[in-house]
Amino acid sequence: MNPNQKMSFYDFIMENNKKYDMNDDDWGPFTNRKCAVIRFDYDSKGNVSGEYKGITVYRDKSFERTILPGDTWICSLKPNPNLKSNFFAKPLERVDASFVFSLMEEQRDVIIDSMWSDHKEEMMPMLEEKFKAVIDERVKAAEEKITKEDKRMIDDLEEKNAQQSMELAENERIIESMQTQINTLKAENEELKDESTRNKKKEANKSDKVTGFMEYAPPKYTVMRVGADSIQSDLFTKPRYFVHLSPDQRIMVIRPSDKGNVICVDNTIELAGLSFISDFVEEGEMVSQYDPKAGGIQIRLK
Protein backbone atom coordinates (compact mmCIF):
# COMPACT_ATOMS: atom_id res chain seq x y z
CA MET A 1 0.00 0.00 0.00
CA ASN A 2 1.16 3.53 -0.77
CA PRO A 3 2.28 5.06 2.57
CA ASN A 4 0.56 8.32 1.59
CA GLN A 5 -2.77 6.54 0.98
CA LYS A 6 -5.04 6.24 4.02
CA MET A 7 -6.18 2.71 4.98
CA SER A 8 -9.81 2.05 5.90
CA PHE A 9 -10.56 0.05 9.02
CA TYR A 10 -11.94 -2.80 6.92
CA ASP A 11 -8.76 -2.87 4.80
CA PHE A 12 -6.89 -3.09 8.09
CA ILE A 13 -9.03 -6.10 9.15
CA MET A 14 -8.56 -7.88 5.81
CA GLU A 15 -4.81 -7.38 5.83
CA ASN A 16 -4.43 -8.74 9.36
CA ASN A 17 -6.81 -11.67 8.66
CA LYS A 18 -4.31 -12.84 6.04
CA LYS A 19 -1.28 -12.02 8.17
CA TYR A 20 -2.45 -13.74 11.39
CA ASP A 21 -4.90 -16.34 9.97
CA MET A 22 -7.91 -14.62 11.53
CA ASN A 23 -11.51 -14.21 10.36
CA ASP A 24 -14.07 -11.42 10.59
CA ASP A 25 -15.65 -12.92 13.71
CA ASP A 26 -12.44 -12.39 15.62
CA TRP A 27 -12.88 -8.66 15.12
CA GLY A 28 -16.40 -8.59 16.50
CA PRO A 29 -15.63 -6.39 19.52
CA PHE A 30 -13.75 -3.90 17.35
CA THR A 31 -16.47 -3.62 14.71
CA ASN A 32 -19.07 -2.93 17.37
CA ARG A 33 -20.12 0.70 17.16
CA LYS A 34 -19.62 0.96 20.91
CA CYS A 35 -15.91 0.31 20.63
CA ALA A 36 -13.80 3.28 21.77
CA VAL A 37 -10.46 4.41 23.13
CA ILE A 38 -10.99 5.30 26.78
CA ARG A 39 -8.58 6.73 29.34
CA PHE A 40 -9.39 5.69 32.90
CA ASP A 41 -8.55 7.55 36.09
CA TYR A 42 -10.04 8.48 39.44
CA ASP A 43 -13.08 10.73 39.14
CA SER A 44 -14.43 13.27 41.65
CA LYS A 45 -16.18 10.49 43.59
CA GLY A 46 -13.06 8.37 43.89
CA ASN A 47 -14.21 5.82 41.32
CA VAL A 48 -12.10 4.69 38.36
CA SER A 49 -13.91 5.81 35.21
CA GLY A 50 -13.54 7.29 31.75
CA GLU A 51 -15.78 9.10 29.33
CA TYR A 52 -17.24 8.37 25.92
CA LYS A 53 -19.04 11.20 24.10
CA GLY A 54 -19.84 12.85 27.42
CA ILE A 55 -21.15 9.63 29.00
CA THR A 56 -19.37 8.07 31.98
CA VAL A 57 -17.69 4.71 31.39
CA TYR A 58 -17.03 2.35 34.30
CA ARG A 59 -14.95 -0.82 34.30
CA ASP A 60 -16.77 -4.11 33.89
CA LYS A 61 -16.57 -5.83 37.30
CA SER A 62 -14.72 -8.76 35.76
CA PHE A 63 -11.87 -6.47 34.61
CA GLU A 64 -11.38 -4.09 37.52
CA ARG A 65 -7.93 -5.60 38.17
CA THR A 66 -7.02 -5.35 34.48
CA ILE A 67 -7.96 -1.74 33.83
CA LEU A 68 -5.97 0.43 36.23
CA PRO A 69 -6.08 4.18 36.92
CA GLY A 70 -4.01 6.04 34.33
CA ASP A 71 -4.44 3.33 31.65
CA THR A 72 -5.76 3.90 28.15
CA TRP A 73 -7.60 0.99 26.53
CA ILE A 74 -9.45 0.14 23.36
CA CYS A 75 -12.68 -1.11 24.91
CA SER A 76 -16.00 -2.58 23.95
CA LEU A 77 -18.80 -0.66 25.64
CA LYS A 78 -22.02 -2.11 26.98
CA PRO A 79 -24.83 0.22 28.13
CA ASN A 80 -25.86 -0.08 31.78
CA PRO A 81 -29.06 -2.18 31.55
CA ASN A 82 -30.52 -0.52 34.62
CA LEU A 83 -29.77 3.19 34.34
CA LYS A 84 -29.00 3.61 30.62
CA SER A 85 -26.87 6.61 31.65
CA ASN A 86 -23.42 5.04 31.58
CA PHE A 87 -21.39 2.28 29.95
CA PHE A 88 -19.45 -0.68 31.24
CA ALA A 89 -16.13 -1.33 29.50
CA LYS A 90 -14.38 -4.57 28.64
CA PRO A 91 -10.70 -4.18 27.73
CA LEU A 92 -9.64 -5.28 24.25
CA GLU A 93 -6.16 -3.81 23.77
CA ARG A 94 -4.11 -1.55 25.97
CA VAL A 95 -2.85 1.52 24.12
CA ASP A 96 0.83 1.94 24.98
CA ALA A 97 4.17 2.15 23.21
CA SER A 98 4.41 -1.63 22.62
CA PHE A 99 0.98 -1.64 20.99
CA VAL A 100 1.78 1.24 18.66
CA PHE A 101 5.20 0.02 17.60
CA SER A 102 4.01 -3.55 16.99
CA LEU A 103 1.91 -2.26 14.10
CA MET A 104 3.16 -1.89 10.54
CA GLU A 105 4.26 1.62 9.65
CA GLU A 106 1.23 2.47 7.51
CA GLN A 107 -1.05 0.95 10.15
CA ARG A 108 0.56 3.07 12.85
CA ASP A 109 0.07 6.19 10.78
CA VAL A 110 -3.60 5.67 10.05
CA ILE A 111 -4.43 4.56 13.62
CA ILE A 112 -2.47 7.36 15.22
CA ASP A 113 -4.08 9.91 12.86
CA SER A 114 -7.53 8.55 13.64
CA MET A 115 -6.94 8.42 17.38
CA TRP A 116 -5.52 11.92 17.43
CA SER A 117 -8.43 13.24 15.36
CA ASP A 118 -11.20 11.53 17.34
CA HIS A 119 -9.70 11.16 20.81
CA LYS A 120 -7.34 14.08 21.24
CA GLU A 121 -8.77 15.00 24.64
CA GLU A 122 -8.21 11.48 26.01
CA MET A 123 -4.67 11.23 24.56
CA MET A 124 -3.36 14.64 25.58
CA PRO A 125 -3.10 13.91 29.34
CA MET A 126 -1.34 10.62 28.60
CA LEU A 127 1.17 12.25 26.26
CA GLU A 128 1.74 15.17 28.61
CA GLU A 129 2.41 12.83 31.51
CA LYS A 130 4.74 10.64 29.46
CA PHE A 131 6.80 13.32 27.76
CA LYS A 132 6.67 16.25 30.22
CA ALA A 133 9.91 15.21 31.92
CA VAL A 134 11.67 14.77 28.55
CA ILE A 135 10.48 18.15 27.26
CA ASP A 136 11.37 19.90 30.54
CA GLU A 137 14.86 18.40 30.42
CA ARG A 138 15.38 19.58 26.83
CA VAL A 139 14.13 23.06 27.66
CA LYS A 140 16.43 23.20 30.70
CA ALA A 141 19.42 22.06 28.62
CA ALA A 142 18.64 24.68 25.95
CA GLU A 143 18.35 27.42 28.59
CA GLU A 144 21.66 26.39 30.18
CA LYS A 145 23.35 26.42 26.77
CA ILE A 146 22.02 29.91 26.01
CA THR A 147 23.09 31.10 29.48
CA LYS A 148 26.65 29.78 29.01
CA GLU A 149 26.91 31.34 25.53
CA ASP A 150 25.60 34.66 26.83
CA LYS A 151 28.05 34.62 29.75
CA ARG A 152 30.96 33.82 27.43
CA MET A 153 29.91 36.62 25.08
CA ILE A 154 29.57 39.08 27.98
CA ASP A 155 33.00 38.06 29.34
CA ASP A 156 34.57 38.57 25.90
CA LEU A 157 32.95 41.98 25.53
CA GLU A 158 34.04 43.03 29.02
CA GLU A 159 37.61 41.92 28.30
CA LYS A 160 37.67 43.82 25.01
CA ASN A 161 36.16 46.87 26.69
CA ALA A 162 38.80 46.76 29.45
CA GLN A 163 41.57 46.47 26.85
CA GLN A 164 40.19 49.36 24.83
CA SER A 165 39.77 51.47 27.97
CA MET A 166 43.40 50.84 28.92
CA GLU A 167 44.61 51.71 25.40
CA LEU A 168 42.45 54.85 25.43
CA ALA A 169 43.94 55.95 28.76
CA GLU A 170 47.45 55.30 27.44
CA ASN A 171 46.76 57.27 24.26
CA GLU A 172 45.37 60.16 26.28
CA ARG A 173 48.60 60.27 28.30
CA ILE A 174 50.66 60.18 25.10
CA ILE A 175 48.62 62.98 23.51
CA GLU A 176 48.90 65.07 26.67
CA SER A 177 52.68 64.58 26.72
CA MET A 178 53.03 65.45 23.03
CA GLN A 179 50.89 68.55 23.49
CA THR A 180 53.18 69.63 26.34
CA GLN A 181 56.20 69.13 24.09
CA ILE A 182 54.55 71.14 21.33
CA ASN A 183 53.80 73.98 23.73
CA THR A 184 57.39 73.90 24.95
CA LEU A 185 58.75 74.06 21.42
CA LYS A 186 56.47 76.98 20.63
CA ALA A 187 57.73 78.84 23.68
CA GLU A 188 61.34 78.12 22.76
CA ASN A 189 60.74 79.30 19.21
CA GLU A 190 59.40 82.59 20.49
CA GLU A 191 62.61 83.10 22.46
CA LEU A 192 64.77 82.89 19.35
CA LYS A 193 65.51 86.48 18.49
CA ASP A 194 67.39 86.21 15.24
CA GLU A 195 68.42 83.84 12.47
CA SER A 196 71.81 83.15 13.99
CA THR A 197 70.31 81.93 17.26
CA ARG A 198 67.86 79.76 15.37
CA ASN A 199 70.65 78.25 13.25
CA LYS A 200 72.70 77.41 16.36
CA LYS A 201 69.68 75.79 17.93
CA LYS A 202 69.13 73.72 14.80
CA GLU A 203 72.77 72.61 14.65
CA ALA A 204 72.72 71.59 18.30
CA ASN A 205 69.65 69.44 17.78
CA LYS A 206 70.54 68.08 14.35
CA SER A 207 70.80 64.29 14.30
CA ASP A 208 70.17 61.38 11.99
CA LYS A 209 67.40 59.31 13.52
CA VAL A 210 67.18 55.56 12.84
CA THR A 211 63.66 54.20 13.63
CA GLY A 212 63.31 56.69 16.47
CA PHE A 213 66.88 56.51 17.92
CA MET A 214 70.17 58.24 17.13
CA GLU A 215 72.36 56.34 14.68
CA TYR A 216 74.95 56.58 17.43
CA ALA A 217 74.55 57.49 21.05
CA PRO A 218 76.86 60.36 22.11
CA PRO A 219 77.88 60.38 25.78
CA LYS A 220 75.32 63.04 26.62
CA TYR A 221 72.53 60.67 25.65
CA THR A 222 72.18 58.29 28.58
CA VAL A 223 69.54 55.96 29.99
CA MET A 224 68.72 56.64 33.61
CA ARG A 225 67.01 54.39 36.17
CA VAL A 226 64.66 56.87 37.84
CA GLY A 227 62.43 54.48 39.75
CA ALA A 228 61.83 50.86 40.64
CA ASP A 229 59.99 50.32 37.32
CA SER A 230 60.90 53.51 35.43
CA ILE A 231 63.68 54.43 32.98
CA GLN A 232 64.26 57.78 31.30
CA SER A 233 66.32 59.11 28.40
CA ASP A 234 66.34 61.92 25.85
CA LEU A 235 66.45 59.11 23.29
CA PHE A 236 62.88 58.11 24.22
CA THR A 237 60.96 60.42 21.87
CA LYS A 238 58.31 58.09 20.46
CA PRO A 239 54.92 57.43 22.12
CA ARG A 240 55.19 53.61 22.07
CA TYR A 241 58.06 51.12 22.35
CA PHE A 242 58.50 47.37 22.12
CA VAL A 243 60.52 45.79 24.94
CA HIS A 244 62.32 42.44 24.56
CA LEU A 245 64.05 40.62 27.41
CA SER A 246 66.85 38.09 26.78
CA PRO A 247 66.26 34.52 28.03
CA ASP A 248 68.79 34.96 30.86
CA GLN A 249 67.16 38.32 31.79
CA ARG A 250 70.50 40.12 31.58
CA ILE A 251 69.88 42.27 28.48
CA MET A 252 66.83 44.35 27.61
CA VAL A 253 66.28 45.76 24.09
CA ILE A 254 63.94 48.71 23.57
CA ARG A 255 62.89 49.80 20.11
CA PRO A 256 60.17 52.14 18.77
CA SER A 257 56.97 50.52 17.49
CA ASP A 258 53.50 51.91 16.73
CA LYS A 259 52.10 48.71 18.27
CA GLY A 260 54.52 48.66 21.18
CA ASN A 261 53.57 47.08 24.49
CA VAL A 262 54.75 50.05 26.61
CA ILE A 263 54.12 53.76 26.34
CA CYS A 264 56.50 56.67 26.75
CA VAL A 265 55.44 59.90 28.47
CA ASP A 266 57.86 62.80 28.97
CA ASN A 267 60.85 60.68 27.84
CA THR A 268 59.98 58.15 30.58
CA ILE A 269 59.02 54.50 30.10
CA GLU A 270 57.23 52.52 32.80
CA LEU A 271 58.27 48.83 32.85
CA ALA A 272 56.03 46.84 35.20
CA GLY A 273 58.02 44.15 37.00
CA LEU A 274 61.47 45.63 36.28
CA SER A 275 62.28 45.71 40.00
CA PHE A 276 61.80 41.92 40.21
CA ILE A 277 64.47 41.41 37.55
CA SER A 278 66.88 44.18 38.50
CA ASP A 279 66.95 45.55 42.05
CA PHE A 280 66.49 49.30 42.42
CA VAL A 281 68.71 51.00 44.96
CA GLU A 282 68.82 54.60 43.81
CA GLU A 283 68.57 56.73 40.69
CA GLY A 284 71.51 56.33 38.35
CA GLU A 285 72.79 55.73 34.84
CA MET A 286 72.31 52.32 33.24
CA VAL A 287 74.88 50.61 31.01
CA SER A 288 73.47 50.95 27.50
CA GLN A 289 74.41 51.15 23.84
CA TYR A 290 72.66 51.55 20.53
CA ASP A 291 72.30 48.33 18.46
CA PRO A 292 71.79 49.09 14.74
CA LYS A 293 70.85 45.46 13.95
CA ALA A 294 68.08 45.39 16.51
CA GLY A 295 67.03 48.96 15.61
CA GLY A 296 66.96 49.84 19.29
CA ILE A 297 69.02 50.36 22.40
CA GLN A 298 70.46 47.57 24.54
CA ILE A 299 70.38 48.02 28.31
CA ARG A 300 72.33 45.76 30.68
CA LEU A 301 70.31 44.76 33.74
CA LYS A 302 72.80 42.48 35.54
CATH topology of the largest domain: OB fold (Dihydrolipoamide Acetyltransferase, E2P)
Largest sheet: 9 strands, antiparallel
Number of helices: 7
The CATH architecture of the largest domain would be Beta Barrel
Helix content: 40-55%
Number of spatially distinct domains: 3
Order of helices and strands, N to C?
HHEEEEEEHHHHEEEEEEEEHEEE
Structural class by SSE content: alpha+beta
Model regions low in confidence, pLDDT < 50 over at least 5 residues: 1-6, 207-212, 214-219
Q: Mind telling me the C-alpha Rg?
A: 46 Å
Quaternary organization: single chain
User: Beta fraction of the residues?
Assistant: 25-35%
Strand element count: 17
The CATH class of the largest domain: Mainly Beta
Could you report the average pLDDT, rounded to the nearest whole number?
77
C-alpha end-to-end distance = 91 Å
Shape: rod-shaped
CATH superfamily of the largest domain: Nucleic acid-binding proteins
Give the strand order, joined by hyphens, for the main sheet.
15-9-10-14-13-11-12-17-16
Structure description:
- By secondary structure, the chain is α+β, with helices and mostly antiparallel strands.
- It has 3 domains: 110 residues, Nucleic acid-binding proteins (OB fold (Dihydrolipoamide Acetyltransferase, E2P)), CATH 2.40.50; 57 residues; 90 residues, no CATH class.
- Helix content is 40%, strand content 25%.
- The chain has a 9-stranded antiparallel beta sheet, covered by helices on one side.
- A hairpin with a 2-residue loop joins strand 13 and strand 14.
- The protein is rod-shaped.
